[in-house]
Amino acid sequence: MLQLQSKLMLILVLVIVAASVQYVTAMSEDTSGGCAPAQYVTIGGEGTVRCCFTDGFYGVFWYKDSYETNALIKFNEKEGKIGPGYESGTYDIESDGTLVIKHVNISSEATYFAIKFQTTDIGDREEYIIDVKTRVEASPPYPVINECRSEDKICFAKISSPSVLSCGVERTRPSVSLEWLNRTDEGDVNVTSSSSITAVDNIVFTSLVSTFHVFVQESLLSLMVCKAKDPHDLLSEDETTVFLSKQGDSFKDSTAIKTYIEAGTEMELCCYTSTTHLKLWEFFSRAGGSDGGDESTVILYNINLTEEVTVKKIDGFRLDVNGSLLHDSIQTADEGYYACTLDDFQTSHVTLYDVIVYIMPSPNHIVVEGCDATSHCTIDIRGEGKLTCSLNRVRPKVKLEWVVVDEDPAIKVEDVHTTESQNGDAYDITLESNFIASFSTERRVAVECRVTGEYASLFPFSERLDVLFLAREVTPEPVITTEEPPTKPILAIVIPIVILIGGITVLVAVWLLRRSSPDSDMVAGEDVPLVSREDSKKQEFISQLKQKYKTLCEAFRPIPYIRDWQCVDSIFIDVGTDTIPGDGSAPHAPLLHRVLAKNDPNEKMRKLIEGDPGYGKTTLLLQLVYDWCTSKVDSSVKDYEIVIFLRLRQMGGDTSVCGAVKEYILPRDSTFTVDDIMKMIRSSNVLIIFDGYDEYPEKDSHHTDVNATIRRDMFPSVDVLLSSRLSCVPNSNIVPQTERIHLTGFDSAARDRYLTKAVAGNDEGKAELVKRQLEENPILDYLCQVPLFFVLFAHMTSDDEEFHQIRSVTRLFKYILSCLHTHTKNKYIDTSQKIESMESEHQELDRLAFEGLAEGRQDLIWEKKLMTEQLGVEFMDHHTKVGILVEEDQFYDVEYKREIRFYHQLFAEWYAAHHMASLVANESNPAEYKEELEKFNPLELQYLFRFACGISNLAAKRVIAYLKDRGGCYVFAMLCGLENEGGDENLMELVKDFVSAKVMIADGDSRLYQRSSAQLLEIATAKQLEVPTLNLQGTFRSVDKSGWNLILKTGLHLPVLTTLGELEITSTEKREFSAEEFVDLLNYAGRCDRLTSLSIIHCVIPLTFSTGQPLLKLEDVTVTWWPREMAYVWDFDTSTWKDNKNASLTKELYEHECARVRNI
Predict the structure, then answer these.
(1) Which carries the bigger pLDDT value, residue 96 or residue 576?
(2) Which residues on neighbouring strands pair with residue 897, listed in sequence order?
(3) Which of 99, 201, 711, 980 is the most exposed place for a label (fewest CB within 10 A)?
(4) Is 584 exposed, middle or buried (0-12, 13-18, 19+ CB in 10 A)?
(5) Environment class of residue 399 by beta-carbon count within 10 Å: exposed (0-12), middle (13-18) or buried (19+)?
(6) How far apart, in whole angstroms, are the C-alpha atoms of residue 346 and residue 1000?
(7) Which residue from 413, 415, 412, 396 is spatially nearest to 453, judged by alpha carbons?
(8) d(CA 13, CA 323)
(9) Are 332 and 359 in contact (CB under 8 A)?
(10) Cβ–Cβ under 8 Å, residues 868 and 877
(11) 509: pLDDT strictly greater than 60
(12) At what angle do helices 787-796 and 764-776 cross, to 10 degrees?
């Protein structure tokens, strides 16, 4: 009977369980009130079989595999936790009924039963069945590609074609499935592959997938993806990408481009095309070669699909936005071959560079043994002798040679011996040669030691000296005697007698002198006339200088056709500048004071005045000369005894500084010699002014007086001012102490001053007309920041409707030239038809200007006679009357010659641009016109390229495409696009395209890129186009409060950008702001009308600030400081920084954040 009752009870339990399974299964979809029917626990750690009994319960029983077994663990309100599983420490129960498996292993994989008792009534319960599976996460937790086995999500491998690619995921439970995909610009493509899964100890599984890879068509690069299907989250990354490069002789047909880069300077290697999706930069040591073998080192690779990813493998290198490879400071260890491979998934293109890292010698000239480099040298040789020269600390190894300047068969150079020794990363090269003269008379011969061979153009050094071959000594016939004369006794008697006679003679001479000069005062008085004569000579020299300078300063023409000369003082206006801090000048001192300011009055100054064409460099220097001539009381130039002003365009050949003074400044009949001038410069307080280094014909020659003076190798005790276009001064000729002043043009205040001083006078209507024209045309207003453009415009302005159409610098310059020609036509009515013809037909002048500017030359001065023969008498006469061409007399050797030059170099660029536009538009072979374009540097000749794009639409299309492919010129290409005659709508589309995304001006960007970006931002502001974000990445220097401009490290100015939305200032040098600097930045931000956010990133800024300066209200601007990861927002109400929980930043935490910035 009892057995029957037991059987009936068991059947009843099974019925109940069966019924409850359907109930539990139905409710298991909502685990908020029960247990999920299938769950996973991880082997090796603690696992939970999750149940969520949130509605309260009396007890929970857990069973494993079957109800027939004893419960693993029980819990009820009366007894708490009991059961064998709990007592052994194997299981536990959480407060919501969840089962805890303390140590999960393979045996933990089973079916678990949970019974929840709602009350003490055994029938008031719910039962659940849970299928628990074990899992093991992959290690490593991502698919591993055997060919690279890297921890990177994107790895690199160089393989042959065809090759087998394998990928695996190791030791997972359950197993994962893998597949290979070929990733292209059109999406992922499945490829045929084979898979296998292997069990390890019947617990975990290793999954493998392999495929046979062949590179497509002419491609050298490929992108493959190993992807896992991972429904159980066994991987942290479900795919790994391999960037594949084809192994083999892929570079054998590529001609290496020899590229010379100075050690310690920036390297930029160009590699750009608009359709590139894959890019690879590799390095090959010079020993290993460049055949594309295994010896290459991957620098970086780039993937440009839906998003752009760059993976760097070597520190120090980076990829520019246009694809160029950049390195801030290249070293000799970086010398070798650099290969760039581009791929569009169909074909590849390889560019190979042979980079030679050179070191300029120290000292920066050839040293001749026995000579002083600061003065001309003469060495005496009697018949035969050795000369030794050397070039020290130079790399690579160079060859030296001794030559006789004017070949002379009577002089032989023999026994040439070269010594090469290692000196760090460089070499010391010494050459010793024996000179033998076959003549016996005295003769002076010029000889030269120079660099020869492969690197002669890289190191164009030579040292010239005179060798004075002395007459050979005639050796007398020896006298043969039979006995030795008694020499010693005779000398013992003669020498004392000679000394006695000499002493008596001196005493007599002194006695006679005193008799003729009764007192010492008279003797002193006799010296006075000698000193007075020297002083008188110097005063005469100064008088002759001032006579010439007065002519220069009072013969000023603000526009070419004006024949009434004006004095520079009547038109000079301070232009905007950026003076590098530390020049000793007051922040807002007049420009003329700042130019001559010094930190140390005793230290001799070297200053460089930099500016683009038309920014007033020559006008500024002539004003200084005028102030000296007139001894202007409030000018510091009056402190100089002598001022030397030289126009470097005149100084061709071997003209010395003193020779140039005599030839170009002193009157023809001056009696001063070159030696006289040298003595006066060395014995006086002197300022030497070199104007127009960019036009100096010998700027690439190291051993001229001009370059030696700039370097302080000559005239180290004089002050020197030098003017030049930006980037036209070789660093090798600039000493580190040289201070630079960048001229940045006219702001509105400077233009108003010029109108009052030089144009309108008391005529307010004239001034208002000019201002109104600029207000109505924002683009014209922007262009007139260039002083030359504004001056020409201001003197010519009228109510002409054409002014309203000016949208580019080409249109403005074309209008200015039209005004010049019209003025001349009105004056000479009878020849107006011929004038119209000459106005449009000027091809020969175009060609001359083009050739004069090519390859960095400044050959823009021609002899009038030859120029007239080429251009014609009428053409020459007209263009000199207009003022486009200017005549000058120049002294050469013993005679004066009349020469022709352009009124200003911008006119030369205008005519050269016509030739460029014609050449590019009419040449069908791109290689031909690109070769011509390579002759010009856009950074030095930006207007040449801009004019060419404005003159011809077809030329513009080709030039812009060329610039986009040229390294560092992509944004400048957009600026050139604004010149193309596409109407205002086309112009705005170009600018919109540039500012639509975040605009970044980074420290590594070229000056041309930065300047072009700044100009496009100014145009966008002028046309009220929204600029969402501007990030100054390591380029911000300061705020110029005089005009509220942001000054960049390169000296460029950014005006108030009224349409800017967000401004980010990111420091790459742990910048620390003073309170005053920070308030200046806030006040700049307050003037940007639409600004909503100002972020200062990776800088140290004040915790609080109170400088006494007024602070603009920034009601709508959020000011955020990002020292590192944490951000702090400035609260203007409480004057404190607050974190994301609105808690004020404490001093301790502030110091901690500052320390973290300094340790970046």
Answers:
(1) 96
(2) 890
(3) 201
(4) middle
(5) middle
(6) 32
(7) 396
(8) 75
(9) yes
(10) no
(11) no
(12) 120
Contact 644, 705 (CB under 8 A): no
The type of residue at 696 is: Y
Asked if 224 contacts 180 with a C-beta cutoff of 8 angstroms, the reply is yes
Q: Indicate if the alpha-carbon torsion angle 421, 423, 425, 428 is positive or negative.
A: negative
Q: From CA 147, how far away is CA 213, in angstroms rounded?
A: 12
Residue 40's SS3 state is: strand
Q: For residue 663, which amino acid is it?
A: E
Q: Between 1081 and 582, name the one with better pLDDT.
A: 1081
DSSP state of 575: P
Q: Which region among 340-349, 411-420, 559-568, 1047-1056 has the lowest average model confidence (pLDDT)? A: 559-568
**Would the pLDDT of 598 be above 70?**
yes
Sheet containing strand 325-327, strands side by side: 267-269, 325-327, 317-319
The candidate with the shortest Cα–Cα distance to 365, out of 321, 400, 316, is 400
pLDDT of 511 strictly over 80: no
Tokens of 999: 């605009």
For the chain, count helices (H), then strands (E).
27, 54
Task: Report which of residues 545 and 518 the model is more confident about.
Answer: 545
Q: Is 277 helix (H, G, I), strand (E, B) or coil?
A: coil
Tokens for 865? 């006679």
| Residue pointed to by tokens 């000799």 | 332
Asked if 1090 contacts 1058 with a C-beta cutoff of 8 angstroms, the reply is yes
- The rounded distance, in Å, linking the Cα atoms of 809 and 817 is 12
Mean of pLDDT values over 736-741: 78
Whole-prediction pTM value? 0.47
3-state secondary structure of 926: helix
Whole-angstrom distance, CA of residue 413 vs CA of residue 400: 13
Q: What is the pLDDT of residues 543-584, one digit of tens each?
A: 999 988 988 888 777 666 555 567 888 888 887 776 544 444
Write out the two tokens for 207: 């999954």
Spatial contact of 995 and 1012, defined as CB atoms under 8 Å apart: no
Residue showing tokens 């016939």: 477
Residue 573: count other Cβ atoms within 10 Å of its Cβ: 23
Mean pLDDT of 458-462: 86
Residues 170, 139: Cα–Cα separation, whole Å:
6
Which amino acid is located at 289 in the chain? G
